[in-house]
Specification:
Blueprint (H helix, E strand, L loop, with lengths): L2 H27 L8 H7 L4 H18 L7 H25 L8 H24 L7 H7 L1 H17 L9 H41 L1
Length: 213
Amino acid sequence: MTTTGRSWAGLTALVVAVGIVVQLFVTANGTEGFFPEASERTFNVFAYFTIQSNLLLGGTTLMLALQPNRPQSTLFRTLRLNGVLCIAVTGIVYHAVLAGHDELHGWASVANLLLHTVTPILGVLGWLLFGPRGQTDWQIVGWSIVYPLLWLVFTLVRGEFVGFYPYPFMDVSTHGYGRVLLNCLLVAILFLALAAGATFLDRRLRRKTTVER
């Protein structure tokens, strides 16, 4: 990875960290939300797919910034792809489905902008421009499906006991399991389409880089 690529990765990790810290501050000092206690609301922030996808992106880009030439294990390659795909899904779903549902002001709007718009742009562009290349194949795509499935199962099971669902289109108490599972299937199709596109692009960009060298 080039020096510019490392700098981009470091900037991405920094923006993720700032966005999450601001969101935690806003949640801890707010009064709205499903949970009445500030500690419960703050802890619950980490149940959101948005936050987890940002953590995946931030963690992997930080590792690339610090050790760009580290051996790329199957685990790291999976987490790297997860970070890019999940943050892309976060940006697309938010702007297509969720944007405008809440009126945000002050630091809440700053956190929202960073976590739903800025980090998806930085994450996807960083992968397209700087790679690293040759890290994505169908085996890695298969492993990358595990995390979203685990998150979905956790969210639905927890929601059944607690009554909290992080997104309106996942609210079983409002829509029922049939509609919620259909909504999740549509998101899964988006995820798989992005994964297929990433695999194809990774191969094309790797060949292009090899030829240019």
